[in-house]
């Protein structure tokens, strides 16, 4: 199951979710879930936030290959088919998304932007770690949904219900 996480700049929350799902999505020896991320308007030469990468590394989650990219990449004909698209910031949730081939299920899981927190580097890193933990709690519930009998509408409702958790 391919899941696309969207945020405005694709530098923090969506990157955390992509990496966490790829780390957690291996079930029974096979990759049952595959995470991707993109942004509605990543800045030119945008890179993942270094504190997001550090939070992932501190949690033992691989960061190789993570990059900030436009959501337009996933609307192209040769893009991987998405089963579920989840916005993780309120800005992206309110924007008009591209047409996703295959009409995937959609949901919104709002998280405050850890990039906006001020304080020492350790305080800011702790905020990224707390955001990662919140994302992982919802992902744990998502990956434990029964594999059989989850059609698009049930998946969409389950993913939307998870927005109320955590």
From TrEMBL:
CDD domains: LMWP_ArsC. The keyword Hydrolase applies. SUPFAM superfamilies: Phosphotyrosine protein phosphatases I. Pfam families: LMWPc. This is Protein ArsC. Keywords: Arsenical resistance, Hydrolase. Gene3D superfamilies: 3.40.50.2300. GO terms for biological process: response to arsenic-containing substance. Its EC number is 3.1.3.48. Transmembrane segments: none annotated. InterPro entries: Ptyr_pPase, Ptyr_pPase_sf. PANTHER family: ARSENATE REDUCTASE (PTHR43428). GO terms for molecular function: protein tyrosine phosphatase activity. Residues 1-145 form the Phosphotyrosine protein phosphatase I domain.
């Amino acid at each position: 199951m391919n899941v696309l996480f969207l945020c405005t700049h694709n530098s923090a929350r969506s990157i955390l979710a992509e990496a966490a799902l790829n780390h957690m999505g291996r079930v029974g020896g096979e990759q049952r879930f595959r995470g991707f991320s993109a942004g509605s308007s990543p800045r030119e030469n945008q890179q993942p936030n270094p504190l997001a990468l550090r939070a992932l590394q501190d949690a033992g989650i691989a960061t190789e290959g993570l990059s900030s990219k436009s959501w337009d990449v996933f609307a192209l004909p040769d893009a991987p088919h998405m089963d579920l698209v989840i916005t993780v910031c309120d800005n992206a949730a309110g924007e008009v998304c591209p047409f996703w081939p295959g009409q995937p299920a959609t949901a919104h899981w709002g998280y405050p932007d850890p990039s906006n927190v001020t304080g020492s580097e350790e305080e800011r890193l702790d905020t990224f770690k707390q955001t990662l933990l919140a994302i992982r709690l919802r992902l744990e519930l998502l990956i434990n949904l029964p594999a059989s009998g989850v059609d698009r509408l049930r998946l969409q409702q389950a993913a939307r219900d998870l927005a109320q958790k955590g």
